[in-house]
Fold this protein.
Amino acid sequence: MNASTQWIVGNPSDYVDGQWRAIAGDEIQSKNPANPGQVVWSGTPELTHVDAAVTAARAAFAHWKQLGQHERANHLRAFSAACKKFAEPLAQVITLEMGKTIAESRGEVKLISDKIDITLQESTLARVTNFEVDPGGGRKGFCRFQPYGVMAVLGPFNFPAHLPNGHWVPSLLMGNTVVFKPSEKTPAVGQWIAAIAEVAGFPRGVFNLVQGGVETAKRLTCHADIDGVMLTGSWRAGRAVLQANLDRPGRIVALEMGGSNPAIVWQDADIRAAVLECVRSAYATTGQRCTCTRRLIVHRSIAQRFVSAFTKVASTMIIAPGDAPEPNFMGPLVDQHAVNAFFDKQTIIREGGGRVLLEGVRMDRAGFFVTPSLIEVARFEKAGDSETFAPLVQVSVVDELQDAIAQANATEFGLAAAVFTHQHSVWQECLQELRAGCVNWNYGTAGASSKLPFGGLGRSGNLRPAGSFALDSAVFPVASMEVSSQDTAATSAATGLLATAKWFQ
Ligand code: SIN
């Protein structure tokens, strides 16, 4: 850890109204998953800071909104420049706190600035650009997009910088202010982000940070004075937000949740490419992505070759601490809870009749390191489908495409799916019938593009996609019919009244 990393990690704080508010205590601790003896961040959340942060964000809203999109874009460019300046220490903190490989962390940091560039492109902004129509009758029609106000952004641990950035960039650009609560597993990354926002020079109260776990999330998402909640997290967390906001239909709630993502590998697939993409997507970030492949559905005629090659690649990939020299592919799981959930899932599937082809075991070293798991099942069913953030993938063998599609769709979720085939007709049939928000052809389920919408069906999301469509959730449209005052009487739509209202003349 270099000096600048220590500077921020050593002072647990919230960031409210442009001021740092120190947090004492140790109720929440993040630890280096590769070396759990090393505490990275420690603090006891201050719920009163949530109220102060919302108050500050509310106070800052009017000025920020009035500043105009051009000025706000300049602030985001300054944020992007500050992210580039601190790219290396930020990447190091990501790896230190949640364990992913340093190459992946560097890639994640780059995505922050990429997201800002993409959001500022005219083609992205077109979705929320004011427009005028001619409704007839001498009137003018306008649609103008307005910011909601104060947005609560709740981030996940797996992409602790990139994914919440995907919520606050569009929110801020369109004139909302933000209160950010990072995952309690990655508070140091959250604190780094706030420090970068401070360097970028956002006006006071525009960007606020509050640290904490479930109680902080509850206080924030139930707060009477917020206007929206944007969450990337689990179905459980998203469900709690929905439930807490049942009586507030006017509050925007944009949820990006989990996945149980299938990959169909058809008989004519390029097996080498399919194996590499499926291994990558199943085990990227140690299986801790909502887009990870969880279900392999393979045609019987190639199943043996595919499974044997998959097993070989999976069992020889390099697993090492995130800061080890490349080329390591998988770091540790984030914490002991994740390790337990991994082994529990493996046991449940085995006891349900699954045949373990590659057994995931605890590695003989310090840290939350496990080896990948592959389990053959008779078929995929919707009943009991759940998401486990771990390097575990199941495989079933099929004969008919319709059965492959049925098994791919037999899920509570609907985030991502992949199809491996040379045949256009097979791809087309899958594209038409797979129920998922991201459906890829000869490309694995993981690794979404920020230039496309990103969201899913079922328990994966509430149909407010992030990615390039996230701007939609940052504004509401105001429709206006406008008639200049001297034309009002002449153009009145109330024609039936004109005869009886002659006395007006
Ligand atoms: C995620 O949202 O967990 C990952 C997104 C991606 O794979 O690109």
